[in-house]
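STRUCTURE:
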């Protein structure tokens, strides 16, 4: 029986790529974007630096692959939250809990900020970073719109823009936790985020205020 060597090579290459992404993730968390090196990532994966460059153009390209993998998991988590959120408060609590579960110490938020700083002058990398959050902000914006329509609430800004503001707030709270000698607790971060959610929507003029469940 003849084996298709081309498919075998492609499968091995795909497996190597996934292995590098999986091993790069903890290195970026531990070291940050700037300090992480391709040599260290290759060593963690038990591969050579050449294997990294045969799959990724640069450290920025590998970082984007890790970011995309995280984004898929985050979208799945937000989709589950979306199906159960009945109010702005529910949505906010679900949103921030996903972020806290995903990045409890704020280390990914810090690595992401470093990546943004490193992208200065690199329009391609900067555009890829900007695009990475669009799917998440779109989904969260849709959730905000659905709840606002259901409860006859008026939003001060487009829902997707509010989602972006909320993401920036949550990221800032996580960064504060990482660097503050007296970090905020999960409960404090959650309540701060919920307070923001409560303030972004008001009953439409002439509409009775609906009680949140």
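SEQUENCE:
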């Amino acid at each position: 029986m003849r084996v298709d060597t081309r498919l075998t090579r492609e499968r091995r290459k795909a497996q190597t790529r996934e292995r590098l992404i999986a091993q790069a993730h903890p290195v970026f968390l531990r070291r940050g974007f700037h300090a992480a090196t391709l040599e260290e990532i290759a060593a963690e994966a038990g591969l050579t630096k050449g294997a990294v460059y045969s799959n990724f153009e640069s450290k920025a390209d590998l970082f984007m692959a890790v970011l995309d993998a995280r984004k898929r998991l985050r979208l799945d988590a937000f989709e589950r939250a979306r199906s159960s959120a009945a109010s702005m408060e529910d949505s906010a609590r679900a949103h921030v809990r996903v972020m806290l579960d995903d990045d409890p110490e704020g280390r990914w938020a810090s690595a992401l900020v470093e990546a943004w700083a490193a992208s200065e002058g690199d329009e391609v990398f900067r555009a890829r970073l900007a695009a990475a959050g669009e799917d998440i902000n779109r989904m969260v914006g849709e959730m905000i719109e659905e709840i606002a329509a259901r409860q006859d609430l008026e939003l001060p800004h487009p829902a997707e823009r509010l989602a972006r503001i909320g993401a920036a707030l949550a990221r800032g709270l996580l960064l504060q936790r990482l660097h503050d000698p007296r970090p905020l607790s999960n409960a404090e971060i959650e309540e701060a985020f919920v307070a923001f959610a409560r303030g972004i929507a008001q009953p439409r003029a002439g509409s009775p205020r609906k009680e949140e469940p």
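REMARK: DSSP finds ten helices and two strands in the chain.
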